[in-house]
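Lecture 7 notes: from sequence to structure.
We start with the chain below.
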Amino acid sequence: MDYDSALKSLKKLETYGIVFRLENTRELLDKMGFDWRGRVVHVSGTNGKGSCASALNSILSAAGYRVGLYTSPELIEFTERIRVGGAQIQKREFAKLAGDVQRLTRKMQSKPTFFEATTAIALKHFADQRADAMVLEVGMGGRLDSTNVIPGEVSVVTNVALDHMEYLGDTVEKIAYEKAGIVSPGSTLVTAAEGQALRVLEAECAKKRSAVIRVGSDVHVADSSSTIDGTSFTLKTKTQTYDIKSPLPGLFQAQNLACAAAAAETMGVPKKHILSGIERARWPGRLDAVRRDPLVLLDCAHNPAGMKQLRSFIAKTPYERLIVVAGFSRDKEWASMAEMLSDADRFIATRYDNPRSLEPREILSAVKGEESRDVKSAVRGAIKSATPRDLVLVTGSIYVVGEAMPLFRKRVDV
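Predicted structure tokens for the same chain:
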């Protein structure tokens, strides 16, 4: 089976939807002969978990670890989800493992979902490639997310806000409880969560006799500044002071990177590797300046909390006109996100190529603008109408950004 056939076969499992459980992934891994001993970090959070995971991957790599990094979804190519030593899984290796999953699935009474199968492939690949550390980005929630089949010595919950409410619950307390499920007994949780969400996380850690490191009280972020070229801040822990410089734009990244640095310090990573790792970490598609004349920003904000952070950054970015290309998933709080973008000088509503996508005409029922049949046409039209002093913003969904990205880059690396 070649790569395209393997991916097509795997995607057929999407018909089983989203199911929260660990049994199927465990069964697949057992049948695949998964055998691995090494360090594991789980990363969850409503926003910023990908940035934090990428930074941890870079930090541990700088410290000499061979790191398996698992993230989702991809922007351009499926192989972005599974990396070892910074390299995406080879297509022939993916095809082989997907073929194994396909054969095993036929014999399973309860069929695995797409994400369960993908997680099993990733973990088996990490073991086969002799990774000695894994950084696993949680798909959704945490407690019954497929990535939670393997215990971690450190867990990160970047923050907690309302998202995926149909699956995780309709309050931050319920969502925090699900995310706290990634904490293994006797381990350490690092979090920048606040308020009632933090109290839920603390209570769950107390039950498991796990330590909690809080960004804001146990470790402190100060003197933050951010431009389109990156973010800098001072981080003070109980033992170290770090002057951090990162190429990731956005003041909110200080919290995500503080989580990564504190987690790495807990794992015993020396200061010099934490600093150099953060300095080299990249996470495309997040306040990603893919062009400068005019300035074109791609950002994967897909919930109100993320959109609020994006708007805060845009407010401090100089431009003459704001041209927005936006598309949303119909199961998200898209109306409130559209409202945050309604002051754009030009608003182009579009859709990505998936049944989950909201139709442009539905978006325009909430905000004034025009529609475009697809993301690439919308982006091309926005750039064509822009002057060198304008800002073109492409946002609303990771899938929208993923369809726009090939206009500017052929592949995505971290």
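Points to note: DSSP finds 15 helices and 17 strands in the chain. The chain has a mean pLDDT of 96.
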